[in-house]
Amino acid sequence: MFNNLSDKLDKAFHVLKGHGKITEVNVAETLKEVRRALLDADVNFKIAKNFTNTVKEKAIGQDVLTTLNPGQLMVKLVKDELTTLMGGETVGINLSGTPTVILMSGLQGSGKTTFSGKLANYLKTKKTKQVLLVGCDVYRPAAINQLKVVGEQVGVEVYAEEENKNPVEISLNAIKHAKATGKNVVIIDTAGRLAVDAEMMTEISNIHKAVNPQETLFVVDSMTGQDAVNTAKAFNDILNFDGVILTKLDGDTRGGAALSIKSVVNKPIKFIGTGEKMEAIDVFHPDRMADRILG
Ligand code: GDP
């Protein structure tokens, strides 16, 4: 995960760690390398620039050159700033409501169905919740089948209406069904498209208005970097979602989406997907991720 970024940051700090006496030039050089590492990770130019400017100001403020170990202090400043960039705090999901309704949004292939299953499994095993999964992709029968397979894997009931082409009706019926069968969490998996389009946005927005979810989650493939950030912006403009789910981090060597998304949409990353298996889900902790990136 984020190996390229970790390697480049490690190299950036090499300059500072190797010198007996650290000069202003060394610090400036390190920050230049840090900025380059962020840009290579597909972090937006403005964010990368602000990042290094902030670290620089803090380094000056803390008189980095006169400290015992300037290299270590610089690593700490960068780590703190990475944590802030990724949201600072760990933010959980809101499980209020009877039942709690969780709406999944995102493009096709982002990992929505897989994550819906992972979240159902997580809530069932960690939070002892009774979960209902709802298939709302009325265009692709294969998508409903996939959700059924996932539901079976995690031992969670899947609600679908194969003959009904109205996702708003299906969602509302599913919530009624959940109440009637004693479920306290309803996870609605919606239809995605390959790119943002008006029809998809209208549909998800209609479902959102009708079911008034406690949590609207935006699922995105972290490997898509700046595209992930742009897609997040488009969905957030319509849904004002509550959190981001970054999937496929296991294959992401760069980390640009993880580093940029919070500052662009101002919504926390809540969970990450780290593999295809139902157990490959983790709560996102910005500080632990920053530790991991810096090794
Ligand atoms: P959807 O169209 O948004 O519902 O996406 P899917 O859930 O069908 O996922 C698309 C593909 O990504 C599938 O092959 C999944 O197995 C795969 N996938 C989903 N999440 C992850 C993840 O965290 N890591 C990896 N490696 N693959 C994932």
Automatic annotation (TrEMBL):
GO terms for molecular function: 7S RNA binding; GTP binding; GTPase activity. GTP binds at residues 106-113, 189-193, 247-250. Its EC number is 3.6.5.4. It is found in: Cytoplasm. One of its GO terms (cellular component) is signal recognition particle. Residues 268-281 form the SRP54-type proteins GTP-binding domain. Keywords: Cytoplasm, GTP-binding, Hydrolase, Nucleotide-binding, Ribonucleoprotein, RNA-binding, Signal recognition particle. It is an enzyme of class 3 (hydrolase). GO terms for biological process: SRP-dependent cotranslational protein targeting to membrane. It comes from the Bacteria. Transmembrane segments: none annotated. It catalyses: GTP + H2O = GDP + phosphate + H(+). Composed of three domains: the N-terminal N domain, which is responsible for interactions with the ribosome, the central G domain, which binds GTP, and the C-terminal M domain, which binds the RNA and the signal sequence of the RNC. Belongs to the GTP-binding SRP family. SRP54 subfamily. Involved in targeting and insertion of nascent membrane proteins into the cytoplasmic membrane. Binds to the hydrophobic signal sequence of the ribosome-nascent chain (RNC) as it emerges from the ribosomes. The SRP-RNC complex is then targeted to the cytoplasmic membrane where it interacts with the SRP receptor FtsY. Part of the signal recognition particle protein translocation system, which is composed of SRP and FtsY. This is Signal recognition particle protein. It comes from Lutibacter maritimus. The gene is ffh. The chain holds residues 1 to 295 of 443 of the full protein.
